[in-house]
């Protein structure tokens, strides 16, 4: 009887070895089907623009088509959570940004995911500063003049909504200036810009690309970019540091994340292809003409450290200002 079971035991052992080898084989063949790049915001916003510039070239370097999929809602929390719950096989990834990944954990009471535990970071791919702009009728042409004005009356600033990067940038301005800066949230950047142009609020702070055309047409006056260096598309606009408020540092970064437990070989393949994509001359040109800079990390591990730093920094701002999204 024991003798007759030996062939079966051999078969079971062979099957077990084959099953154990399957994940490795799947990683070696990755990718073998389209990759879905989820964007947690509606079409037309900064995240969507960056994703659609990157997707075709990323597809070339990774060896599979990359499909941009919009899943908007709750400041990108819905789309990001969808990716966090997806199979960790590299076929569902997200292009996230500062708001859902580093700010929302501090401004929402019930986050459905932990950005450090439920997602694995691959790399940042681009960055753009926030732009402080005012209606041309506002009697302030510099950041110093804007601060002085805010000491005499309320100065209202619109944002794309509660709890996101523009909101926190406004709170940073309020803390640093010690002025009467009033945040006016809107449901999206579009209506926030419309009311700033119409003079219903004094000014606005959102991603630079969203305001670029309005500034060029003279419908808004650029006051400062909230970064450590000037933007190439607006070289005449000083930084917040040059305007005397170096602590008003708020740039939006865009990063690709995958579900936690995505195998390291797949993460490494995505990282290599993303860096190649960001360094591609045509991708760089497409980003830079919109006021967006290519911005890749030296490794996925370096990105993990960057994420931790950003979570701490924006957590401090959220607590100091009391900013909430809900």
Automatic annotation (TrEMBL):
Entry-linked CDD domains: PBP2_Bug27
| Pfam families given in the database record | TctC (PF03401)
The UniProt keywords, alphabetically, are:
Signal
* Domain of life of the organism encoding this protein: Bacteria
Residue span of the signal peptide, if any? 1-26
Which family does this protein fall into?
Belongs to the UPF0065 (bug) family.
What is the name listed in the Swiss-Prot or TrEMBL entry for this protein?
A: LacI family transcriptional regulator
- In its UniProt entry, the species of origin is given as Bordetella genomosp. 8
